[in-house]
Amino acid sequence: MRTFPSLHPVINPQHPGLAVRVADQGFATYIWGSDFSFDVKAYAQAQLDTAVAQWPLQAVTSYRKCYGIDPEEFASFRDAPDSAIFMAFLDDQPVGHLVISTNWNGFAHVDELAVHAPARRHGVAKALLGVAQFWSQKKGLPGVMLETQNNNLGACRLYEQCGYVLGGIDHLRYRGIDPHTQEVALFWYRLFS
Question: How many CB atoms are closer than 10 A to CB 49?
Fold first, then answer.
C-alpha cells in the first residue's frame, strides 16, 4: 500500500466520526458490500454558465440507477506515482471512495467518486473532494476535473457547491451503449488560482 507521509487522515468537524485515508486491503470487500445506486426522477438540460438550480428538467418515471463498480478496474492505481485510491470511513466503517489520477491534459482526474447510499448527507463526498483538491495541489496540478451525468442532479449540485464549474456537455458519449439514451455526460472542473 502506497502512503502519503504528509497526508494525514482528513477529519470533518461537522461529522467527527468521518475520516479519509489511503485505501487499504479492505477496498474490494467494501465495494462488493456497498450500495452506490441513486434515484433518477428527471434529466436536466444542463447549460454552461447557469446555476444547476436553473437548469430545465424533464421529469421521468422514477427509477434506481446503479453503475457497476469493479474494484479490480482500479488495481493498477494503487501503486502508481500519478494515481491514488482513497477511502472514507464513518465511525470506522468504510462508506465512500475516490479514485484519482493525473490526466493527459495535466489536470487531476477523478476517475470515480462514490458514497454508500446509507452514508449520504454526512459530508462524505465533500471530504473526498477535499482530498482530491489536496492531492492535486500537492502535485502542482492546475485543477481537478470529473464527469457526471445529467440524471445525477445530486452530484451536479454537490460539485457546484464545492466550486466546480461546468466546462463541457457531451450529448453523444453514451449513444454507443444505448442509441436512444437521454443521458448526457457533464464535465466539471475545479480550477486553482
Answer: 6
